[in-house]
Amino acid sequence: MIPRYLVPFRAASATHYFTDLLVIGGGLAGLRAANAALPHQSVLVVTKDKLYESNSQYAQGGIAGVLDPEDRFEDHVADTLAAGGNLCDPAVVDLVVREAPRRIEELIDWGTRFDQLSGSLALGREGGHSRQRIVHALGDATGKEVMRAVIQRSRDLPNLEIWEQTFTLDLLTHEGLCRGALVSGNDGRLMLVWAKQTILCTGGNGQVYRESTNPSVATGDGFAVAYRAGVELRDMEFCQFHPTVLYIAGASRSLITEAIRGEGAWLLDHDGRRFMPDYDPRAELAPRDVVSQSIVRQMAKTKSSSVYLSLRHLPAALVRRRFPGIGEACAKFGIDITVDPIPVRPGAHYMIGGVTVDGQGRTSLPGLWAAGEVTSSGLHGANRLASNSLLEGLVYGAHAGEAASLAAAEMPDSMRAFRLEHAAHEPSIDFDVADVKASLKSFMGRLVGVQRDEAGLQEATAAVDSICGFAMQRQFDQVGGWELQNLLCTAQMMARAALARTESRGVHFRLDYPAVDDPNWRRHLSIRLDRDGGQPFAGPLLKTSEQPGDRDTVPVETAAG
C-alpha cells in the first residue's frame, strides 16, 4: 500500500480518520474542489503549511478570460494553442477558455475584489496574448486577493475541515483503488485518512531548482506520491522557466510579473541594448519559452549573469499604481523601478507536466482525482500561456470536486480500515539533508535548465540515480527528509523524460536537437513506476503516448532503475 522506506518508525502509533472527500493541497485548485462537494458530505483538506503558503498565493499577473466585448473565445483559444507548441488538446483548451468568464464571476460573487478602471474590470495584457484579457487584483498581487476570498468562503463551510501543517507521506491503495492517504501532523502524530474519494492538488516542484519563483513548500510531493502509487504521469520534461526573476546575488529570488512587459517594459542587455526584437517580432510580448531562451542566449553573448527590465520610458505614476508590490520588493535593494533597470534572469516557475487527467480530473487510479499544477490536463501543451494557470485551477478544481463528490455519493457510507503490515524502524541519522538538496538543485539548474543537451542530461540522470541509491533507502521521520525523497523522485522523472525527447518544443529546448520534430514527437511522453525492478525506488517506465486528443498508447522504451 505504501513503500516501506517512507513509513516512519512510529507507524505502529498511527490513528484512523474517515471522510467522504480528502483534498490534498490548500491552493486555489484544492479549495475550489473542496467547495464543489455536496453539502451533506464530509470534506477534509490537508495542506503541508499554512493555507496562505502556496503557489496560488504568490501569483502576480492575474486570470485570463474573454470579458471584453471585442475579444473572442476563438482568439483566447488560438493564443493558448500557439503558445503550447502544437501539443495542447484543442478540446480541453476550448472547454477551459469558455468557462473562464463564469469562473471569474464566481470569484467576484465569493468576494474577490479585482482591480477596476472607470467602473469596469481593468484588463491587462501579457506575453502571448493578442488582446487585453487579464483580470488582476491589488495591482500585482492577484493570488493574494483571490486566496483571501476563497479561504474565507472555505472556512465558512460547515462540512469542511482543514488540517494545516500536515504532510502527506503517501497515498493509501488497496486492490487497485485509492483509499486515502497517510499523513503526519505538526505534532508528529501519524494519521491514516480513509476517504471514499481523494483529490490531489499539491501544486508544483520549483524547489528542485536553485533559481525558482516557487515558495519553499513546492517540493514535488504530489508528483512523487502519485508515481509511487502507480499513477500515470506525462510530459515531465516540460518545466516552464519564468523569463524575469529578480536577480540580486545573495538574495532570495522574486518574481517580476509578466504583466510588467505587458504594460510596455523593455528587456535590455548588459550593454543597455534592447535585444528581444533580434529574436522574435513580438519582442517582449513573445511567449515565455521564447523570452527565456532569448535571455539565456543574450547573457551568453554578453558574458553576463543577468539582463535588465527597464520601465523608465513609461509614466512613473502608472508604474507605481500598477506594480506596487514589485516596487516595494525592488526598493529593498535600492532600485527605483520608475528609473532604475531591474536585474533579471529566468527561474523555474511552473510545472507543465504532471499527473495525467481527463476532462473531469480523473487519474489512471480509480478513486483518485487531481487538479491544478500537479496535473497534465492538455491545456498547456509544451508551454503555458501566461495567466492560464489560476484559470486551470478554478476550472479543473470545480470539475474534479463535482465528479469526486458524485462518485462518493454513490458509495456506501460504511468504510473500513485495512491493516498496514510494515515493521517499525529507527529513523536515519547522520544524514545531511540540506547538503544533498543543495547539490540536487545545483546540477538540475545547470543540466536540466532552460537549455539542455544529451551529455548534460545523461550526467543529470546518473547524478540523480546515484543519490537515490543511498537516500531512498533511508527512513526519515521529519518533513525535510520526506521532501528530499520527493524532490529526487520528481527530478529523476524530469531528467529521464528530457533525455528521451530528442527534439525542441515549447519550454524543452535541446541544443543538440534544436528543431521541432512533429512526425516523431508531436506526442506525449508518459511515465509509470516500473515495478519489475524489484527495488524500493524502481526506475520509471517511459513510453510515447497519444497525440493531443487521442487516448491510444504505444510503448517504446523502458528506462532501467
Q: What is the residue-averaged pLDDT?
A: 89
Number of strands: 24
Q: Main beta sheet, described? A: 7 strands, mixed
Q: So how many helices?
A: 15
Question: What is the end-to-end distance?
Answer: 20 Å
CATH domain class of the domain at 243-348: Alpha Beta
CATH-assigned fold name of the domain at 243-348: Flavocytochrome C3, Chain A, domain 1
- Portion of residues in beta strands equals 15-25%
Please give the CATH architecture of the domain at 243-348.
Alpha-Beta Complex
Assembly of the depicted chains: single chain
Describe the structure.
With 561 residues, the protein is of the alpha/beta class. It has a domain at 243-348: Succinate dehydrogenase/fumarate reductase flavoprotein, catalytic domain (Flavocytochrome C3, Chain A, domain 1), CATH 3.90.700. The chain contains 15 helices and 24 strands. It has helices at residues 28-35, 73-83, 90-109, 142-155, 221-228, 259-262, 276-279, 288-302, 316-322, 324-331, 389-409, 433-447, 454-471, 479-500, 518-521; strands spanning 15-24, 43-46, 63-64, 116-117, 120-121, 123-124, 134-135, 160-163, 167-174, 177-184, 190-200, 233-234, 239-246, 254-255, 266-268, 307-310, 342-351, 354-356, 368-370, 375-376, 451-452, 509-510, 525-529, 540-544. Strand 4 and strand 5 form a beta hairpin. Helix 13 packs antiparallel against helix 14. The protein is globular.
